[in-house]
Amino acid sequence: AQQPAGEPAPEQALGVFRALRAPGRTASAGAAGRPSEAAGSARGAVLQARVRQLQAESVSEVVVNRVDVARLPEHGSGDGGPQPPRKVQRGAKGASPVPRSGWAQRLEKDKRIQRMHGQQLEVNLQMQVQSQSEELKVWPKHLQVEPRLLSKQLAVFLAPESSWEEQLPRVLQEAPRKLRIAVGRAPSTQAQLSGQQQKLLAFFKCCLLTDHLLLAHHLLVTHHSQQQKQKLLTLDMYNTVMLGWARQGAFRELVYVLLMVKDAGLTPDLLSYAAILQCMGRRGQDAGTIERCLKQMSQEGLKPQALFTAVPLSEEEQAAVLKAVHKVKPPFSLPPRPPPAVNTSKLLRAVYAKDGPVSYPKLHLPLKTLQSLFEKQLCVELASKVCVVSVEKPALPSEEVTHARKTLQTLRDHWEKALCRVLQETKNHLEVEVHKGRFSLYPFLCLLDEREVVQMLLQVLQALPAQGESFTTLARELSARTFSRHVVQRQRLSGQVQALETYYRKYLHLLASDTKPLPLYPWADRAPPGEQLSDRPVPQPWPLPVQMELGKQLAEMLVQATRMPSSLDNRHGSSRLVPVLYHVYSFRNVQQIGILKPHPAYVKLLETAAEPTLTFEAVDVPMLCPPLPWTSPHTGGFLLSPTKLMRTVEGATQHQELLETCPPTALHGALDALTQLGNCAWRVNGRVLDLVLQLFQAKGCPKLGVPAPASEAPQPAEAHLPQSAAPARKAELRRELARCQKVAREMHSLRAEALYRLSLAQHLRGRVFWLPHNMDFRGRTYPCPPHFNHLGSDVARALLEFAQGRPLGPHGLDWLKIHLVNLTGFKKREPLRKRLAFAEEVMDDILDSADQPMTGRKWWMGAEEPWQTLACCMEVANAVRCSDPAAYVSHLPVHQDGSCNGLQHYAALGRDSVGAASVNLEPSDVPQDVYSGVAAQVEVFRRQDAQRGTRVAQMLEGFITRKVVKQTVMTVVYGVTRYGGRLQIEKRLRELTDFPQEFVWEASHYLVRQVFKSLQEMFSGTRAIQHWLTESARLISHMGSVVEWVTPLGIPIIQPYRLEHKVKQVRGGIQSITYTHNGDISQKPNTRKQKNGFPPNFIHSLDSSHMMLTALHCYRKGLTFVSVHDCYWTHAADVAVMNQVCREQFVRLHSEPILEDLSRFLVSRFCPNPTPRKISQCWEASQLKETLQAVPKPGAFDLERVKHSTYFFS
């Protein structure tokens, strides 16, 4: 039988694996010549899986029933270790009979069809292999260069009587061909292109990067020659190919492309003329031709100066264009670089004021150390990966472990060769596709060296979890890794690394502790002309269709090439090659998704080998040097790896386009705030890490947030039932088994997350590191490394402390003690003096926790945040035992939290006196608790209803507590509906064991109405503003637009919620990929998401503005500052200063006419002028304008009182 292309015959493959067997063992003779059954049994396996799913009823995953099991060589164990539980099968001892169903009958029929068509499949496969091999031989390397033009008037230029140089001005003067049907093929943005157009444009651009220009030209010509395909071509596509020929000085080919532009009915633009002039500059063209070209350009209203300001050209390309222009206009010079514009925002005026001795804040490290750290980080990013020693308890050295590691290495060596072969065959096939005039991924697979692609695929295979990964997710991940490596490689090859070194060393002079202080003003204006990294061409992310198709191709190559013997120990049977990865379907949220799972034998092999290292992408690990300062929407963060300024939903491009088009100075505040947050130096708290590792390497401690290993997962009480068991008992066992499997999956996920975090912490122990930041579409900031940062859990935060310490000073120790009590959660509603007194009362417990955390009284374990409490206990113990506590250098971050921050912003916007008092905007002697206030108001309503005889109100007597209403009150400001609020309250009521459960549904309905009624009375201004925002968004989306606004700091915001457009982009192969594409601006807005999302998103944009203002002013004062949204961190000695800045900036922010400015912006942006002609549209437009202008009237609360509120942030 013939083998699939790219796969070795079993006899050949068997020889590769001889070394994998234990000495003295041989393979069975009959197995070697057996043909592969994998291709023919795929459908049958899925049907078998479906039968078992229907039998199991409650089991959520469809698993392939019959998987070829590869067993490990046994060393002392007879059963190969624990096996996953099996379901009871028909015919097995003790199994209950299964009635025949339609699915079972269909399965048997399918098996008969498989047997009948077995020989035919082999014949088809043989023909396919022969066809592919002949195809590669037959197809010549001849590519089409001369186009076929549809215009006879233009076709005469293809056989010129004069030189191509003389032809060019005549071609430019020719009017574009008039099209019979007007086709809109000049989209202004990436989002307006169809999926096919996005793929074509990306193909042409990629060909320029991989030196496949002739291939790009060929595809352009073949598409242009076919009228239907020509409609897909845009001017950008023609210009891209034209620019490629211009770089090579190929005049004839450039004129060919220009003829196609005219033939397509398009008019050359600035980029077209830039390519033409560049080509003539490189060839040293005579002045006459250049002069006629410039004259034609002028007649079309295009100015030469715009070639250097509005067209993205490299320095070399600009020089070639300038050389051509100088031949005609020797005095011509490049337009002068405009002077740095000044940010005129009133909110930022004080930040960048130059009146006073304010210098750029320094780090605690000297210049030489920072330069050395920069070189280390550069090496990390050039390698694109980081190897980290795992903190899992190391396996004891044994013959079994040694043999498993040797086996694994041998397998990987073979997989590497197989992947190289499959990659080369795939590229050959895809190149033929382009020869046929069809789009393919060929140039994208040529971006990286083949060995680098193979290593990347093997790295992904090693990290694949035992429960598998969504095929779509894996495809997306592979594509992202390919793009990231390509960007790094391109910078290395183009010499940009050297420019980066020069630029970054100047930046380090600002930060180093031993350099001259420099004044503080935006870094974006600091670098001299020509040295701004933001001036250089930036690789644009590939369109979503290309990402998904490329990722799918790479994933399928990985599946195709990675195989292993079905038995590594011939005692267990044959040694056929079986796939390492297999494809199953799982049902999640009523949707069927494809999953790639590693073979159980491969998973077992990995577990036995217990390899001591983990491999991370460079962008997933904190940086070893300060991040690159943010100077533009595409420059900042990591040194070489691409970093997005704004996180967006998949496929959305409007956010980036808004950032690119807004005035650069409008982003100064946000860019500098992100730079400042990233400049905070961190270190690992070694004592806390040792304790966490102690628990992690034992059996974990879920109560303390340390996940338990898989061995601690719950098991069903009975694994098997006798045949005579009742059906109800069998159903109960199936449900119990499903619950156990769910818990096991959750435990595995939590354990893997903790393993990554703790391994990175151990890797960074004793080092200084940094966390680059970016923001989401609302302006909220986040650290880029995902596994180890201060936005994580209690454990993650306890492991981090400031690398730069600060003496406690006269009040720092008090703030440490207050912070400790805050972390425990014991005295939330007590004033600060009582919290401080409580800290003194429990000082013995604090010291005992610090000295004997695991063997003492363990007081810290009862806190809300136990690990952070323990870290603070240790810091307090060190300080109080110091001879001079004020001189003790503290590294522990101290937190100050906003009091229901969303309601604080609403109360300030509406000047709501009652609401302001409830959320601590009003000064008071004790902290106000809004949740208790709402609970008390609900209790008043309940009593009134109970007196009227309402039964549910009488049943709720004594059950209305702060905890019952807290979640609903907290989330109502972020748009929770009554339905969602009812579910929250229902959950709390079910936790009350003494509440009659039969009244839960009725009671939750009653309580959610009372909570909303209480909030309406307590926060009348808040509800009015929320209603105005919701109604405005509803009307805007009804008019066909998505909601946009600009934050007080100048960040442009757009809500990305559109009706989901599901595109079945990639068909065939293992599975078709269907994904949701939100970036298509032709899709209508999702009205429900637009109106529900506007109030919370607008408030989030305000709290991010407040945080950024606080960050910038703290930076100006020399403070270390970081934040977790509305929780601000600094040194204990600087808490009082940070509190003052925080309050001042909140007052300054809300002193601006925020709602009035928003109203004016929305009217100018969304109210059409002139008025629409249709009556219905005219009515909607007038209603929208009327609503937008009806800004809620503010109350009488005096914002200045916030400055004196102790518990505003506390």
Automatic annotation (TrEMBL):
It is an enzyme of class 2 (transferase). SUPFAM superfamilies: DNA/RNA polymerases. Signal peptide: none annotated. InterPro entries: DNA-dir_Rpol_C_phage-type, DNA-dir_Rpol_phage-type, DNA/RNA_pol_sf, PPR_rpt, RNA_POL_N_sf, RPOL_N, TPR-like_helical_dom_sf. It is found in: Mitochondrion. Its main location: mitochondrion. GO terms for biological process: mitochondrial transcription. Its EC number is 2.7.7.6. PROSITE patterns: PPR (PS51375), RNA_POL_PHAGE_1 (PS00900), RNA_POL_PHAGE_2 (PS00489). Residues 375-679 form the DNA-directed RNA polymerase N-terminal domain. PPR repeats lie at residues 269-304. GO terms for molecular function: DNA-directed RNA polymerase activity; mitochondrial promoter sequence-specific DNA binding. Pfam families: RNA_pol, RPOL_N. GO terms for cellular component: mitochondrial DNA-directed RNA polymerase complex. Keywords: DNA-directed RNA polymerase, Mitochondrion, Nucleotidyltransferase, Transcription, Transferase, Transit peptide. Residues 1-45, 72-106 are annotated as: Disordered. Coiled coil: none annotated. It catalyses: RNA(n) + a ribonucleoside 5'-triphosphate = RNA(n+1) + diphosphate. DNA-dependent RNA polymerase catalyzes the transcription of DNA into RNA using the four ribonucleoside triphosphates as substrates. Homodimer. Component of the mitochondrial transcription initiation complex, composed at least of TFB2M, TFAM and POLRMT. In this complex TFAM recruits POLRMT to the promoter whereas TFB2M induces structural changes in POLRMT to enable promoter opening and trapping of the DNA non-template strand. Upon metabolic stress, forms a complex composed of FOXO3, SIRT3 and mitochondrial RNA polymerase POLRMT; the complex is recruited to mtDNA in a SIRT3-dependent manner. Also forms a complex composed of FOXO3, SIRT3, TFAM and POLRMT. Belongs to the phage and mitochondrial RNA polymerase family. PANTHER family: DNA-DIRECTED RNA POLYMERASE, MITOCHONDRIAL. This is DNA-directed RNA polymerase. The gene is POLRMT.
